[in-house]
Amino acid sequence: MSYLEDLFSLTGKTALVTGAASGIGRMAATALVRAGAHVMIASRREAECKKVADELNALEAPGSAEGFAGDVGNEEGVKALAEAVSQRTGQLHILINNAGLSWGEKLETFPYHAWARVLNVNVTGLFHLTRTLLPLIEKAASADDPARIINLGSVMGTQPIADGAYSYTASKAAVHHLTRTLAIELADKRITVNAFAPGPFQSRMTAFATGTDEKAAKVGSRVPLGRIGNPDDIAGATLYLCGKAGNYVTGAILPLDGGQSVQHGMSLFKDVD
User: Of residues 3, 112, 168, 240, which has the active-site annotation?
Assistant: First the structure.
């Protein structure tokens, strides 16, 4: 095995990626399969998960995939998903909590039920799925090769941006804080817990703003690096945090946002005579 393969290979690892039928979840799942992992893909859209798994298996990559239904939006769904995973594997090296919802509306008319619906998936379901799967994750963990948990946050959980998605931005800030909390609590179990904080990527959730090349370019023009994110950006971060290269990283909120997390409109002394 070459030096680079040793740092980033995931051969023999088993992973679960929630919400991986599209968008960032699919990007992460693809990277894991290409690196040699067996990846379970779960979302409410069972047929799409199976289709994505078939497409990943057709890549003739060193890893493999399987797709099935999974819903983290309620307690029964979390229990059913955890049971489905435990029936398929005795240990879980990698958990990527990617499933998420958003809701956009003006402040004046933002509906009460949209708050609970978004937080139930983005925060509550994430927490309880992680908690329920901990026995499987612990079995895969060791001092030399920790088990990995990656949560999906957002630049909207880092910056005070709502754009009408009030419950979403609050939920992602909660994900960031929960990530740090779990990182310290699970460190002695040799489990790392990190989060991605993505900026704009093409996905079902952002299709209204990035669904065409013209729209994507317009959104990208507002990003300091001048573009929206692409699959390789997710792949690189995923392999870093899940491979040997990321053994010593925990509690990190990794900004995958082209500089948006440090973007501001402030100017204190520039152009002052």
Answer: 168
